[in-house]
Amino acid sequence: MHVAFFPLGPYGANCTALWRDDGCAVVVDPGADGEAVAEWLSRRGLSLSAVFLTHAHFDHISGVDALVARHSAPVFLHAADEPLAFSRFNTSQPGYAGMSRSPLLDTSLGEGAAVPGWRGSVVLHTPGHSPGSCCLYFPSEALLVAGDTLFAGSYGRTDLPGGSPAEMRRSLARLRALPPETRVICGHGPETTIGYEALAH
Predict the structure, then answer these.
(1) DSSP strand E in the chain: where?
(2) Phi/psi of residue 118, nearest 5 degrees
(3) Helix, strand or coil for residue 161?
(4) Is residue 200 scored above 80 in pLDDT?
(5) Alpha-carbon distance 110 to 120, whole Å?
(6) Model pLDDT for residues 140-181, shown as the tens digit of each residue
(7) Spatial separation of the C-alpha atoms in residues 149 and 126, rounded to whole Å
(8) What are the residue ranges spanned by the domains of the chain?
(9) What CA–CA distance (Å, rounded) separates 14 from 165?
């Protein structure tokens, strides 16, 4: 599996692309610029099979509509974050487009599920930053795409709508139990490892 990530939008939310040798790709958090992500996929000849949203905050999801207009694919979001995705908090942010209630939106994936077509992927429900915050874990690749649950040297804030310090503590404890060599691609900023963060927190 191949992996790339790059920041998008004024808040620099990381968009992660994962793809196989057969050209099949999944995009995690297309951020503020779905057109840029669509172009990135097209230049590499990649076929989008799924979009996975780690949570529903505007800086991670506002590029969805533009991306799936060019590369149609199901969009997976935890059901607990669906109300947040279409809340006034999300749709009134300057510089960010809202996400539509597209028929491509699928809220059926939950804890322990795999992204369809991506055997070996595991959804970890890690609330705290938002009620439906999730990480996408690939045990065989020792890779965790953490969204805003975990950052290098820090973790996602819990004072936004739906945040919970108590749930964040439980989610971080759960992530600390993963193998220390696990590579972590964060929702903002540089990557890190579980081992480093276990020592830092």
Answers:
(1) 2-8, 13-19, 24-28, 47-52, 75-76, 105-106, 122-125, 134-138, 143-147, 150-151, 154-155, 183-186, 192-193
(2) -125, 75
(3) coil
(4) no
(5) 15
(6) 999 999 999 999 999 999 999 899 999 999 999 999 999 999
(7) 7
(8) 2-200
(9) 23
| CATH pick for 2-200 out of 3.40.190.10, 3.60.15.10, 3.40.50.300, 1.10.3720.10 | 3.60.15.10
17: CB partners within 8 A, 6+ apart: 3, 4, 5, 25, 26, 27, 28, 37, 40, 41, 46
Sequence letter at residue 77: L
Token pair for 162: 């739906």
pTM score of the predicted model:
0.96
Decide if 75 contacts 106 (C-beta within 8 A): yes
Phi, psi of 119 (to 5 degrees): -60, 140
Residue with tokens 């949203």: 53
Which two three-digit tokens encode residue 69? 């207009």
Which of the pair, 19 or 201, is modelled with greater confidence? 19
